[in-house]
Amino acid sequence: MSQPLSPLQIAESLTELWSPQVIAEVNDMYVKVAKTKGELLWHAHDHEDELFIILRGEFTLEFEDGSVTLREGEVFVVPRGRRHRPSAKEECLLLLFEQKSTAHTGSETTAATKSLADQLRWLNSR
Amino acid sequence: MSQPLSPLQIAESLTELWSPQVIAEVNDMYVKVAKTKGELLWHAHDHEDELFIILRGEFTLEFEDGSVTLREGEVFVVPRGRRHRPSAKEECLLLLFEQKSTAHTGSETTAATKSLADQLRWLNSR
Question: Which residues pair with B78 in a beta bridge?
Fold first, then answer.
């Protein structure tokens, strides 16, 4: 039988910033954790909503018309198509729910972009 | 702009046990919170996985071949088709991720079964 997971403990164990790791799948979505600090690039996911849950710390999502700051335990859904720039002044640990098809930095690709293979490393190493 | 939600605060505010309330949607899934204590009925969701995150307290999932007890902050996915009986000795607050099509008690229907309309009350009253 599979065992319960602690997303916080898994997120704490990550050594690379802005490198989400899949920890579980539910229907056609992935549950991911990430350790963040600093900024990721502006991007949008044209066809997929993206859900953030803050496990520890504070996380900011900038939009073209404003921003929200998320605190520990809070949930926020970025609707499909909405350009956003994620950032965290101090280290912040996150849980993400995304479609399996969701690309890390949406329609933008830079050196910061993580492939799906990258994001499956934790799961595949269990 | 929509505001961050605190699932824990919303779950605390619920007055009815075993009556999940949708707080957000992400693609074709609902995010729900619930306040639980005691037992729900044995059931299975034939075509949908179901994810539990424990916000506060302890939660037990019995299966035909064993059980798991989930603690605060832990995540567990019940795979589609697997019969389970959820229970909590003391009050337990949960976050759930389910397909929009997922019925509360799967293919079983009893007086304990909540309709989708029931589960949308919180969202519709905002």
Answer: B50
Residue of B nearest to A96 (CA): B26
ipTM of the complex: 0.92
Residue type, B60: T
Q: For each of the domains in chain A, give its residue range(s) and CATH number, in order of start.
A: 7-102 (2.60.120.10)
Q: What residues in chain B have their Cβ under 8 A from chain A's Cβ atoms?
A: 1-8, 23-29, 31, 48-51, 53, 55, 63, 65-66, 68-71, 73-77, 97, 99
Closest CA to B57 of B104, B11, B10: B11
Specify the pTM.
Answer: 0.94
Kindly list the distances between the CA atom of residue A44 and the CA atoms of A23, A63, B28, in Å, as whole numbers in the listed order.
Answer: 23, 10, 18
The whole-number average pLDDT for the span B91-112 is: 91
